[in-house]
Design a protein that fits this description.
Chains A, B: InterPro entries: FUR, Fur_C, WH-like_DNA-bd_sf, WH_DNA-bd_sf. Chains A, B: One of its GO terms (molecular function) is DNA-binding transcription factor activity. Chains A, B: Keywords: DNA-binding, Iron, Metal-binding, Repressor, Transcription, Transcription regulation, Zinc. Chains A, B: Belongs to the Fur family. Chains A, B: Its cofactor is Zn(2+); Mn(2+); Fe(2+). Two copies of one chain form a homodimer. Chain A has a three-stranded mixed beta sheet with strand order 4-3-5. Chain A has a two-stranded antiparallel ribbon with strand order 1-2. Chain A has 138 residues and is of the alpha+beta class. Chain A is globular and about 45 Å long. The longest helix of chain A has 13 residues. In chain A, a hairpin with a 7-residue loop joins strand 1 and strand 2. Chain A folds into two domains: 78 residues, Winged helix-like DNA-binding domain superfamily/Winged helix DNA-binding domain (Arc Repressor Mutant, subunit A, Orthogonal Bundle), CATH 1.10.10; 49 residues, Ferric-uptake regulator, C-terminal dimerisarion domain (Dna Ligase, domain 1, 2-Layer Sandwich). Chain A is built from six helices and five strands. Helix content of chain A is 38%, strand content 18%. At the A-B interface, helix 5 and strand 5 of A face helix 5 and strand 5 of B. The structure holds manganese (II) ion (2 copies) and zinc ion (2 copies). One zinc ion (ZN) binds next to helix 6 of chain A. The structure holds a DNA duplex (30 and 30 nucleotides).
Chain lengths: 138, 138
Amino acid sequence: MDNLTALFKEKNLKLTPQRYAIYKYLKSTKSHPSAEMIYEALRPDFPTMSLATVYKTVKTLIELGLVQELNVGEDNFRFDANVDTHPHIVCTSCGRVDDIEDAVFEHLNEEVENYTNYKVNTHKLYFYGVCPNCQGEL
Amino acid sequence: MDNLTALFKEKNLKLTPQRYAIYKYLKSTKSHPSAEMIYEALRPDFPTMSLATVYKTVKTLIELGLVQELNVGEDNFRFDANVDTHPHIVCTSCGRVDDIEDAVFEHLNEEVENYTNYKVNTHKLYFYGVCPNCQGEL
DNA sequence: ATATTAATAGATAATATTTTTCCTTAAAGA
DNA sequence: TCTTTAAGGAAAAATATTATCTATTAATAT
Ligand SMILES: [Mn+2]
Ligand SMILES: [Mn+2]
Ligand SMILES: [Zn+2]
Ligand SMILES: [Zn+2]
């Protein structure tokens, strides 16, 4: 019995095929998809699944601490099954959102406490630029 | 003739009382208001102004480079007449959004270029924590 | 295996935010 | 003052997300 099964059981949540598929898909991809993108990606395997189920499931996964929400400045949210605090970069030309690998900014929370009276818990860091693909198309 | 008048003239835009008031209000406040909050704040002086005008105006101001948009993870946008790249902190208890004064993170763009093939232009940095007011209420 | 029960999927309606449309008004310049 | 054209306001439309409601199904016990 794996972690996921145990966690769902602990919270009296049912591990349905839809939930399992959505989480597995988020774990498998580095594309930081929106709800709509998840819905489209899973449609071939789950043609009857509704978009509302995607929204409800990602919310559940977030509450479980299995997924985090990203806000890159679009009119929708994106989701990431990597729940560690890590920076992202957005291509302002094609809209893709990538992780920035190996860059560590965990010291930022402590560093900023010297400049504010807040108790600082976490941060979100989004870079904006032009991805290699879009640089080529100039 | 001030800068604002000149800039609007250059772009063939009209400097209406509504636009002037919205920009002046954004310049005057540190609260990073949403469109709705701007609308409510100016309602006493501009009781006939519509919310659509607020939305249209902030969009215009952004295109002029006079205002920037923030995405702290709410279901709406906030606006800031300080267009310099600077970090913000969000109170997860009461929702207020503050500047972090004096903290300089301008080196981040260059630093991160070592970890990605993107051409990096700018970034947005949001901290999350508990503000002094809300710390007292525990 | 079957029955029981409570949670969830899916359909749909509702809500919230933002944008668009369309017509009237008014800013800017002559 | 007159003309031109951008912009305001009201309302509808478009998007994204959430809530409601009923049938289904996962989980557990028998
Ligand atoms: Mn990521
Ligand atoms: Mn600010
Ligand atoms: Zn790109
Ligand atoms: Zn607070």
